[in-house]
Design a protein that fits this description.
With about 260 residues, the protein is mainly beta. About 5% of the residues lie in helices and about 35% in strands.
Length: about 260
Amino acid sequence: MLRYNIRTGVKKIKTKTALAISGATLGITGLLAALALPLAAHAAVSNNYTPFGDAAVVSGGNPGNAISTDSVGFNTYGGVDYGVPSGITLNQLTNLGTDYKITAGDCGGGSPRFQVNIGGHNVFVYLGPAPNFTGCTTNTWVTTGNLTTSSDAIFDTSQYPGGAQYSTYAQAETLLGSQTVTGIQLVTDGGWAVTGRDQAVLFDNTQINDSSYTYEPTPTKDSCKNNGWKTMQDANGKSFKNQGDCVSYFATNFRNPANGQ
């Protein structure tokens, strides 16, 4: 079930949990280096995510698969809801970023963005550099880097008492740092604000703390075959010594770590 309020831009979506998705008024952009987001040391690839709205896993990522999201006018939106550890607080969110590519339209209408759910409201984290957040380059992969350490990142806390539309992560921590994060999403819903009224965005290599999201199929012991073991690592970032080492890792439900480099 979904509801869309044209005046406020608020959408309510029921996926695994109820999400409050709210449109902001800023446009978003910024061409950084067209490189994949580096993974944190020992980052574990996760499949704990749920596409919602007009969103789906597609080929054409950076590399491999990506999440395709689309927003046409006021009528459609797309995004990804990520699982977060129970009890995590905002000041424990130390790594947040993604690769993204605009494939139709432009950045605008507060989209695309991360949003961090706290206390029934959202902290918006805009993709792209300050100060204008307009004029995205299309059909080019860009990376945000780690938005919690970027001096250009904007954390919009205006939905909270004492908050502001333009805040640094440090300012957001001062206001909300001890409060529990109940969800994190990537959202595309600014079709109404761009030329052509169609805003389409691909996301790949999303990073939330120690979890990396590459949107690839969940590997199994069968993935080790046909030299697949040469391209994979265990959760500690270690490579497999051979196919048997890889098969053992999956067959024991990850209890036997890799024995390679």
